Amino acid sequence: MHKVRLYTYPPHRVFWPYIIINGNKPKFHVIRKYRSKIKSVIIDSGVEMFRNPNIKEYPGGPEKWVRHLIRLYIKVREYGVREAYIIIPDYPDDYVDSWGREHNLWINGKTNVDRTIENIQYVVKHYGKYPWIVPIQGYYMCPSSIGETIERLWSLGILDEYNYVAIANLCTTRNIQITEKTVRTAHMKLRNHKIHVFGPSIIAVSRIYRYIHSFDSVAFSRPVGSLRKRGYRWSCKNERERELYFRAWIDTVMNKYRIPIQL
User: Fold this and answer.
1) Domain limits for position 123
2) Residue 211 domain-assigned?
3) Fewer CB within 10 A of the terminal residue: the chain, N end or C end?
4) How far apart (Å, rounded) are the C-alpha atoms in residues 123 and 97?
5) How many domains does the chain have?
6) Which CATH number fits the domain that encloses residue 245?
7) What is the mean pLDDT of each successive set of 10 residues along the chain, which is 263 residues long?
8) Which long-range CB contacts under 8 A does 254-258 form with residues at least 24 apart?
């Protein structure tokens, strides 16, 4: 059976083998505590900073931010973690501005995809020795745009060098059909690559896990159905509730939706 990795950041007292840390607000408590048992870490670029419609660029520019992410990677490896990856900084199209308008990160005639590809080319040229995950960006609610981006990256030779990619335009959508069509499009064009998906809903994962290598989520702060039946109707407020919510969430992922999670 094909199993899929779930990257998350669990409560401090709960072990989980696949960890994702935020490049914008990195936490290392869990990594320090379970360093010898953790199987893999992903260092995310911190792209959620662009939820603020006034932010158009990474702090100090993409070149400086790349060096920041590399320092985080080095720190993770110094803890003794055997496997770690870094997401190349990308620019989403699914964070709308304060007026609800799309394309908030299209700047000076360049789309979010253009800007992301520029970052990818810079990273490959100057820091290619590090284990990067290549973000595949697209346009808001447009699955076919993922295919177009993949073709551009093939033509540049990027996908000949790196076999771990991330579908990066699905973080905010809860439209299952959009998610499934986007992932299927990527899978058809990247059959020999490992595919990661950022922030899909668990329902979506139950439909796409056969086509992907990994996904990430930290959505356990809200109570799943089994907890709501017990009267929990609020987001977790303390460490005890975080542990309770996390365990119930994992149980829901694996047993209710029957997603075969790799452990």
Assistant:
1) 5-256
2) yes
3) N
4) 28
5) 1
6) 3.20.20
7) 96 97 96 96 95 93 98 97 97 76 88 98 98 95 94 97 92 85 96 94 95 96 95 95 97 97 97
8) 256/225, 257/202, 257/203, 257/205, 257/206, 258/206
Asked whether 6 and 261 are in contact (CB, 8 A), the reply is: yes
The tokens of 63 are what?
Answer: 């070149």
- In a domain, residue 92? The reply is yes
Alpha helices in the chain (DSSP H): 29-33, 62-78, 112-127, 144-155, 158-161, 176-189, 202-208, 225-228, 239-251
Closest CA to 187 of 205, 207, 170, 210: 210
Residue 62 lies in a domain: yes
Q: Residue 71 in contact with residue 63, Cβ under 8 Å?
A: no
Q: What is d(CA 132, CA 111) in angstroms, rounded to the nearest whole number? A: 22
Compute the distance between CA of residue 51 and CA of residue 54 in angstroms, rounded to an integer: 9
Longest Cα separation, the chain: 54
How many whole angstroms separate alpha carbon 230 and alpha carbon 241? Answer: 13
Q: Which amino acid type is present at position 193? A: H
